[in-house]
Design a protein that fits this description.
This protein is an alpha/beta fold and about 425 residues long. It has two domains: about 200 residues, Enolpyruvate transferase domain (UDP-n-acetylglucosamine1-carboxyvinyl-transferase, Chain, Alpha-beta prism), CATH 3.65.10.10; about 210 residues, Alpha-beta prism (UDP-n-acetylglucosamine1-carboxyvinyl-transferase, Chain). The strands form six sheets. Strands 22-23-1-24 form a four-stranded mixed sheet, covered by helices on one side. A four-stranded mixed sheet has the order 2-15-17-16. The longest helix is centred in the middle third of the chain and has 14 residues. About 50% of the residues are buried.
Amino acid sequence: MDKLVIEGGYELNGSIRVSGAKNAALPILAAVILADGEFRISEAPELVDISTMLKLLEELGISSHRDGKTVILNSKFDKEKIEAPYELVKTMRASVLTLGPLLARKGRARVSLPGGCAIGERPVDLHLKALEAMGAEITVEYGYVEAACEKLKGAEITFDIVTVTGTENIMMAAALAEGETVLRNAAQEPEVVDLARFLKKMGADIDGEGTKEIRIKGVKTLNNVDYTVMPDRIEAGTFMCCVAAAGGNLELTNVPLHEMRSTLNKLKESGLNIDKLDDTTINVTKTKPLSATDITTLPYPGFPTDMQAQFMAVMACSKGVSVATETIFENRFMHVAELKRMGAEIKLKDKSAIIQGTDTLTGAPVMASDLRASASLVIAGLMAEGETHISRLYHLDRGYENFVDKLTAVGAKLKRVKE
């Protein structure tokens, strides 16, 4: 198993191109189930989760191969291929996104209950309740969701809480349902909007994406298309935090600036310089110590929960006391204990972490507990004195494309080694 060794104290100078968004690519790949023919999905990042989704699609009768940054898929209807097996699903929560498309296209689905990052309860109950409202008969036994419905019917669905994957799953299911489906309290995330754009290009009738109410009128068939996945706003924010930690002068290209306002505002509030060069390019510099800045995670357009850990690492060496409040997931402060091993002064109280900024962190052996926690430890390692050793690196590989290579190319001193 690999670990990452980081020597802190080196500034980041140069240019990094942001990859396509994993959280947009995964539902888009699942939506390929809805039509036959060849699909070319550009800017699909080379990540473990993407590879897992492609293996899962192969189990469902969809072959694929990669040509650089483009994944080419060949979708062919096979009514019998309806199972998403535990061996693949256990490592990635997004595999539940095959449930809606399978049910809409083939009338049946057998999908193992999902795994993924261990950051609290993320139940699929909301997905199942919505599909039942559309006429599906659902049973859960032996760790599998079994669903059947000859033809899904449009329904009015109000989600009890905002759910990104739930919104995506039902939007895909509704695209081929009979009649109109209305989703209320829908997720407004940019990745949901990107999926809607993809479905509309396939011929779906969708209105209201990006708002709390989405209307989908079912159509008889959808078509194969070519599509380019949106850039990854979380990766872009993570690299900004790397500069906030290490200093330097970094150009970031292919940045989805319009979708990053909350992250940009908080980093600017802390004192980081972010200059817009064009619609998708920024220059990030750190010219002074950063000031303590509070964050509260909220559904989009609020501050993203997927940036909380990285921002906390930056605040560990800011001037003053900052508070990070997590309202989306419970159990998403597992990185705190590891940051404290490096000298961070953090206290937990209910849903908040109180961070007393300190002058320096020191390198230490630490362990990644989930995807974004692993990124926070890299950020801490970049500004720490001495060497930081991060184990359980597979978390990082699930969500960041060529992360180590990208940072090395702009001056960071880090390397993968065998444990």
